[in-house]
């Protein structure tokens, strides 16, 4: 019976405690007056709306952006969202130690002479204005031909062909007979006849002094150069005005290059040409455009440009190839940046602008032609601004991850016009 009594006592005690607690809460509520509206606790702050997600990306491939969340196609991990609130409108800031580690260099937007330069290839050819053609002025026979052929080099005065000219004999005898008569007019007419038959003045003078008739004549090279044609052989007969030898001079040669039709309009006669020959890579030469041919090559849609080069030492031979840099001689200037500073995306061209506060922002630019290692900027930049010339691709990636977009070049141009009306 003792266990039963103990359980009864425990239950009774529990009931008394519960009733006491209830009575205590009632007394407390009766003593506390109701709170006024001013004493009511403030409502909790409203929950901020969710941040806007610009895109999702893989930290290992941050340049690749995705429109939806999911698993990275590159790594076994989930894509990370990029929120709009983390963007900056005043560029990105890079630790100076990091810029030193990536070898970042700055370049100043400067105004340069923007003479257009073109890189083309060309071939050396003969100067067709330096040609000597040797012909007979009276019929005769070939007594001797020196051992020469087309393509051989000859010097001025070098013997080429010996001819037997029968008509010379009768004309010389006539001059000697007239000389004995002492008639100046007849003597002058006799000399003129010998000249028309092709007898040089020095041989006519020798004839008058010696009185010896000579009907053999050795033809010599009138200029130094290359034999193009040699159409005589021993024993053959020649007619009046027949071409015997054609010689092309080498003291000046032509370098001809094909320039695309769209670029030819920027060239003019007198423009400088910097020439580097494949045969002599260590030696550079300079020349000027002497002729821009008016004909357009239909297949290549190109215009031929002719450059005249001095060749007194005959080192330049027709057929040699050369690389040519053509530069217009205009005095126009324009803004330019190093070509290595440009970021070409395929659709547009960007540069990374650097300000005095050490921040970098992408800027779209409109580019023109190249001048050496520089590129002309037609819109998007101002003179004196600083652009990143090395390491700009890393900065562009950082700006892309931060959601910083490049300002269009036309807007920058409009700002420049407003600041400098």
Structural summary, described in words:
There is one protein chain. This protein has four domains: 34 residues, no CATH class; 111 residues, conserved putative lor/sdh protein from methanococcus maripaludis s2 fold; 115 residues, RNA polymerase II/Efflux pump adaptor protein, barrel-sandwich hybrid domain (OB fold (Dihydrolipoamide Acetyltransferase, E2P)); 76 residues, Efflux pump adaptor protein, beta barrel domain (Elongation Factor Tu (Ef-tu), domain 3, Beta Barrel). The relative contact order is 0.15. The chain is rod-shaped, with a radius of gyration of 49 Å. A hairpin with a 4-residue loop joins strand 23 and strand 24. The strands form five sheets. Strands 4, 5, 6, 21, 22, 23, 24, 25 and 26 form a nine-stranded antiparallel sheet that branches. A six-stranded antiparallel barrel has the order 7-16-19-18-17-20. A four-stranded antiparallel sheet has the order 8-15-13-10, with no helix packed on it. Helix 3 packs antiparallel against helix 4. The N and C termini lie far apart (112 Å). By secondary structure, it is of the alpha+beta class. 24% of the residues lie in helices and 37% in strands.
């Amino acid at each position: 019976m003792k266990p039963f009594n103990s359980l009864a006592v425990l239950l009774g005690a529990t009931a008394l405690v519960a009733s006491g607690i209830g009575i205590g809460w009632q007394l407390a509520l009766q003593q506390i007056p109701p709170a006024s509206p001013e004493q009511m606790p403030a409502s909790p702050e409203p929950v901020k709306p969710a941040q806007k997600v610009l895109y999702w990306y893989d930290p290992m491939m941050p340049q690749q952006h995705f429109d939806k969340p999911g698993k990275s196609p590159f790594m076994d991990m989930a894509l990370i969202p990029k929120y709009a609130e983390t963007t900056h409108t005043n560029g990105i800031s890079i630790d100076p130690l990091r810029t030193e580690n990536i070898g970042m260099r700055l370049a100043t937007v400067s105004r340069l002479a923007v003479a257009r330069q073109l890189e083309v290839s060309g071939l050396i050819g003969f100067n067709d204005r330096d040609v000597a053609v040797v012909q007979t002025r009276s019929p005769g026979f070939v007594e001797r031909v020196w051992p020469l052929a087309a393509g051989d080099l000859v010097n001025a005065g070098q013997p080429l062909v010996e001819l037997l000219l029968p008509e010379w004999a009768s004309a010389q005898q006539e001059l000697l007979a007239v000389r004995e008569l002492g008639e100046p007019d007849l003597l002058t007419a006799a000399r003129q006849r010998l000249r028309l038959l092709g007898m040089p003045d020095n041989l006519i003078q020798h004839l008058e002094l010696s009185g010896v008739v000579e009907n053999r004549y050795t033809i010599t090279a009138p200029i130094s150069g290359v034999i193009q044609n040699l159409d005589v052989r021993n024993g053959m007969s020649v007619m009046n005005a027949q071409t015997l030898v054609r010689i092309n001079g080498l003291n000046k040669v032509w370098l001809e290059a094909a320039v695309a039709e769209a670029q030819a309009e920027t060239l003019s006669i007198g423009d400088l040409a910097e020439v580097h020959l494949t045969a002599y890579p260590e030696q550079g030469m300079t020349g000027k455009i002497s002729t821009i041919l008016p004909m357009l090559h239909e297949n290549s849609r190109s215009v031929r440009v002719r450059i005249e080069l001095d060749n007194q030492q005959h080192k330049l031979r027709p057929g040699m190839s050369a690389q040519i840099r053509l530069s217009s001689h205009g005095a126009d200037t324009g803004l330019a940046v190093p070509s290595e500073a440009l970021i070409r995306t395929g659709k547009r061209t960007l540069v990374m602008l650097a300000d005095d506060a050490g921040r970098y922002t992408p800027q779209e630019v409109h580019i023109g032609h190249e001048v050496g290692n520089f590129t002309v900027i037609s819109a998007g930049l101002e003179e004196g601004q600083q652009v990143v010339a090395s390491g700009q691709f890393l900065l562009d990636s950082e700006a892309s991850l931060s959601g910083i977009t490049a300002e269009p070049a036309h807007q920058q141009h409009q700002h420049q016009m407003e600041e400098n009306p």
